[in-house]
């Protein structure tokens, strides 16, 4: 017992030191490998050791986790098999246990260092690996080849590019030859099938196979090589853009230099286009010259530069009766037909009155006129105001003024209206002496005399033709400027009466009137009426804005803008392919007309898209057919644009005090928005005539209303709810007074014109006190529902009974 009393404090001290050491070590290992329950177990055992003399040291020999590695490396301790009768005060067992735990910790530390080294080695290995290769670019398959000589070179070039960009897939010649074989059709396939089994080199040598294809199919069309074809090529009636493609294709194979190509291209163009190119810049190279020719040809064929002169009455056709308010005018002498002059000369009759016994110089009927003015100006005026006109520019005080000049070979002088002279403050001088002006019947025109003429002023026709000209001031003609026989004889312009355009100038103009600018801007000259005539239902207050009602302007391909219609697809989706919808005979005819028209406008183009939606028609209110595309499947996978549309009832609350209204309807509204570049293929549609895709926003797209509404909201952002309501393509302008209303409408029309938006005049209403707008009748008295919209409801028979309807409190009353 004394031994135990001495040993117990010593054992307690040793255990305390061991506990502190183990606690520190286990704390370090806690975040590395020990689970939380082991730490709790340690604390429990420590408390037991400090409060009891019965030490169960088997705790220290128990592993702290179930790691198989630890189980396999841990030595078997005798403490695990400690018998119940073992002496708890045996210090050697305790020290042995402590040593074991130290060895165990050293093992853990060694494993940890090993893992860290492995981790560092793995990191260095991963960093040393090459960067992952990007996904290979997917190339479209080459077009199939049917043996056409024109397509042989292009087909082989496509195959070569396809193979060079996929070297791993097409490494073997046999693979390349087999691939080419799958692309052959028609007579090319028949030939290849015949030689495939009989010539082993065809299957094993790519170069041999392609050379055979060239030998068999790559021969000049019509037996002529590219150079010979090029010398015989002519534009004909084709657009210059189409002709240039064929010319460039042959030029690339001809071996001619740029000088020869430029000469051949110019000489092969149509006569009209050659005339327009007479004033070209000689420094242009072949490519620039071709581009210039294409631009000029496009300008020449624009519909808004055309005019109708079918009803033009030439001055020699007939003499108007005396009752005509506008008569030919003469200055100083009359003009006689050749036969009449010959008759009077043989019979010695007066050339002026036709009488006998005197000469023309002594004719008593002839008014006294100074001999210095013995020349004539004659002009035929048409009461229908349909005349042959030429766009001109008068430069006065460094300001350009655009007018239409009447071209008349029967006028013996060039004249200008006196009102225009006053308006532009054109300087004039007096004619000394005044020049008498008479009609064919010797009656005076206007005041009867021309008293003033302008100082030389600059007149420009088109872009390059410039001259200094003096014009006589007169008050009678309705035309502002008349270019008569003196101008025509000096410049000798050549007109195409069939095409209704000025096609060339005389050598005099090339030497004296045509200026060659350092930077050439394309311009063509056409004979035209006013290109933007005001529709009959449009008030005269908007005559200067007639362009906004132009139908031709609305058929041009609009430019790309920030409001282009985007078609973003949901992830992991692709546009579906639909079928061709059956159409009736009238619908088929309407479809063909629509395709032709849309192609000519540039709204659609042929497509090779993998997507395709169905094409059909719906009836319009006016009985016509509206083309529609079945985009339901495309809309289902399209990311929606949630730009809101206006709430109609809330918008109409702004009309409380308005008394005057103008309703505008935009022409081809959706077609004024482009499809975002790169998304056109998603709009592809199928018809029995072919596969096409839109370049402009079509009807039927889910985002079309929101896109167009956001566009018009931006256009009218400062006018909305001030005096304008816009719902997609319907515009309502409202005002309290007529003066204010005219100003508001002018602002709206100007804003539309600035943004290339155009109005359908036949659907517009101006300056009305009541109108129908979006299903409502609007007037100064208020807003009410349009009766035609609820006509069907009013016509319903009275309800007799109601079955299967749930009773909802506060919303429905029970039937009696």
Automatic annotation (TrEMBL):
PROSITE patterns (alphabetical): RT_POL (PS50878), ZF_CCHC (PS50158)
GO molecular function, one term: RNA-DNA hybrid ribonuclease activity
Keywords tagged on the record: Membrane, Metal-binding, Transmembrane, Transmembrane helix, Zinc, Zinc-finger
Record EC number: 3.1.26.4
Domain of life: Eukaryota
Coiled coil residues, start to end: none
First-tier enzyme category under EC: hydrolase
Pfam families to which the protein is assigned, alphabetical: DUF4939, gag-asp_proteas, RVT_1
Residue ranges occupied by any CCHC-type domain in the UniProt entry: 350-364
Alphabetical list of SUPFAM superfamilies matching this protein: Acid proteases (SSF50630), DNA/RNA polymerases (SSF56672), Retrovirus zinc finger-like domains (SSF57756)
Residues in Reverse transcriptase domain copies: 599-778
Keyword Transport belongs to the record: no
Transmembrane segments: 12-32
Keyword Cell wall biogenesis/degradation on entry: no
Family: Belongs to the beta type-B retroviral polymerase family. HERV class-II K(HML-2) pol subfamily.
Protein name in the entry: ribonuclease H
Organism lineage string: Eukaryota, Metazoa, Chordata, Craniata, Vertebrata
């Amino acid at each position: 017992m004394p031994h135990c009393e001495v040993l117990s404090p010593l054992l307690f001290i040793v255990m305390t030191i061991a506990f502190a050491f183990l606690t520190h070590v286990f704390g370090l290992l806690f975040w590395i490998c020990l689970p939380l329950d082991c730490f709790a177990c340690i604390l429990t055992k420590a408390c037991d050791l400090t409060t009891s003399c019965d030490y169960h040291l088997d705790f220290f020999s128990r592993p702290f986790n179930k790691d198989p590695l630890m189980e396999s490396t841990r030595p078997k301790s005798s403490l695990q098999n400690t018998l119940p009768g073992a002496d708890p005060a045996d210090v050697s067992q305790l020290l042995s246990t402590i040593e074991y735990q130290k060895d165990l910790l050293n093992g853990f530390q060694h494993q940890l260092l090993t893992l860290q080294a492995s981790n560092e080695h793995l990191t260095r290995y991963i960093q040393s690996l090459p960067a992952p290769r990007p996904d290979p670019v997917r190339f479209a398959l080459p077009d199939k080849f049917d043996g056409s000589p024109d397509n042989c070179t292009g087909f082989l070039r496509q195959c070569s590019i396809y193979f060079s960009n996929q070297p791993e897939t097409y490494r073997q010649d046999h693979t390349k030859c087999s691939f080419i074989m799958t692309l052959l059709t028609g007579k090319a396939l028949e030939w290849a099938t015949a030689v495939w089994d009989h010539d082993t080199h065809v299957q094993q040598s790519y170069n041999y196979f392609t050379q055979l294809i060239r030998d068999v199919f790559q021969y000049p069309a019509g037996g002529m090589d590219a150079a010979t074809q090029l010398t015989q090529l002519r534009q004909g009636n084709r657009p210059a853009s189409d002709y240039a493609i064929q010319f460039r294709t042959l030029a690339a194979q001809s071996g001619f230099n740029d000088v020869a190509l430029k000469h051949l291209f110019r000489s092969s163009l149509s006569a009209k286009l050659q005339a327009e190119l007479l004033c070209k810049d000689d420094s242009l190279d072949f490519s620039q010259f071709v581009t210039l020719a294409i631009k000029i040809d496009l300008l020449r064929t624009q519909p808004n530069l055309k005019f109708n002169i079918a009803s033009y009455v030439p001055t020699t056709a007939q003499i108007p009766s005396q009752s005509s308010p506008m008569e030919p005018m003469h200055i100083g002498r009359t003009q006689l037909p050749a036969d009449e002059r010959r008759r009077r000369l043989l019979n010695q009759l007066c050339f002026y009155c036709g009488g006998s016994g005197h000469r023309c110089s002594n004719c008593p009927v002839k008014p006294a006129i100074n001999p210095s003015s013995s020349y004539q100006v004659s002009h035929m005026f048409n009461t229908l105001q349909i005349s042959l006109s030429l766009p001109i520019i008068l430069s006065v005080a460094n300001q350009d003024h655009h007018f239409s000049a009447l071209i008349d070979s029967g006028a013996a002088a060039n004249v200008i209206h006196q009102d225009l002279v006053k308006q532009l403050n054109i300087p004039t001088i007096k004619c000394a002496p005044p020049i008498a002006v008479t009609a064919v019947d010797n009656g005076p025109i206007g005041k009867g005399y021309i008293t003033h003429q302008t100082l030389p002023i600059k007149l420009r026709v088109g872009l390059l033709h410039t001259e200094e000209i003096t014009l006589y001031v007169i008050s009678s003609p309705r035309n502002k400027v008349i270019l008569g026989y003196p101008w025509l004889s000096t410049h000798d312009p050549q007109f195409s009466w069939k095409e209704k355009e000025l096609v060339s100038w005389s050598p005099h103009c090339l030497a004296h009137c045509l200026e060659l600018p350092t930077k050439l801007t394309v311009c063509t000259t056409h004979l035209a009426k006013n290109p933007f005539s005001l529709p009959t239902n449009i008030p005269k207050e908007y005559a200067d804005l007639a362009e906004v009602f132009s139908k031709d302007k609305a058929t041009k391909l609009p430019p790309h803008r920030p409001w282009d219609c985007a078609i973003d697809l949901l992830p992991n989706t692709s546009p579906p392919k639909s079928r061709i919808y059956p159409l009736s005979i009238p619908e088929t005819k309407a479809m063909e007309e629509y395709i032709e028209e849309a192609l000519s406008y540039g709204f659609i183009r042929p497509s090779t898209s993998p997507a395709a939606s169905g094409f059909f028609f719906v009836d319009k209110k006016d009985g016509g057919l509206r083309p529609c595309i079945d985009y339901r499947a495309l809309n289902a996978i399209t990311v929606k644009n949630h730009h809101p549309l206006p709430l109609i009832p809330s918008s109409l609350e702004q009309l409380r005090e308005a008394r005057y209204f103008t309703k505008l309807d935009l022409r081809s509204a959706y077609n004024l928005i482009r499809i975002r570049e790169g998304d056109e293929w998603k709009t592809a549609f199928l018809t029995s005539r072919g596969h096409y895709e839109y370049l402009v926003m079509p009807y039927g797209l889910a985002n079309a209303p929101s896109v167009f509404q956001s566009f018009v909201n931006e256009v009218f952002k400062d006018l909305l709810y001030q005096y304008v309501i816009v719902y997609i393509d319907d515009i309502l302008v409202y005002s309290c007074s007529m003066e204010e209303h005219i100003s508001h409408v002018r602002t709206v029309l100007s804003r539309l014109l600035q943004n290339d938006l155009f109005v359908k005049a036949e659907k517009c209403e101006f300056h009305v006190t009541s109108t129908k707008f979006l299903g409502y009748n609007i007037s100064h008295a208020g807003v009410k529902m349009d009766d035609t919209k609820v006509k069907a409801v009013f016509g319903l028979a009275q309800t007799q009974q109601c079955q299967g309807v749930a009773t909802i409190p506060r919303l429905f009353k029970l039937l009696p």
